Amino acid sequence: MRELIRALLKLNLVGGAILVGYAHQSVLQARVAGMSKVTVELLEWEARLVPLAMAELKEKWRTICNTTTDEDIQADYGNDLVELGMAMDSIKEKSVAEFGEQILVFDRTPL
Predict the structure, then answer these.
(1) What are the respective helix, strand and coil percentages of the chain, to the nearest 5?
(2) Is residue 33 part of a domain?
(3) What pTM was computed for the model?
(4) Do the domain assignments include residue 99?
(5) pLDDT tens column, 2-45
(6) Which helix (H) or strand (E) holds 19?
(7) How many structural domains are present in the chain?
(8) Backbone φ and ψ of 29, nearest 5°
(9) How do residues 45-63 score in pLDDT, each as one tens digit?
(10) 110 domain-assigned
């Protein structure tokens, strides 16, 4: 998750039409628990790239989790996969609400 957040923050996004936030729990629970929240504004093309990057990261972490024999690494990546899945669901939901279902289409087939 830290890797993804670092990558998002490096984008240095300016302007945008969608607010994407991530918290481990609901906003109210996060405030009560003292958890922090990051909000990022994304243009449509940026909102299209984030779920794609997250899906690629998910596959990378899943491969590590499924191929390692180290139980600590397996547990760490397993937990990160759960959190990444929650973040992906939140970002996809907000992206679709703002831009429509086509935001999740990643077709690189030549025309």
Answers:
(1) 65, 10, 25
(2) yes
(3) 0.63
(4) yes
(5) 555 555 544 433 333 333 343 333 444 544 556 677 788 889 98
(6) strand 18-22
(7) 1
(8) -65, -35
(9) 888 889 889 999 999 999 9
(10) no
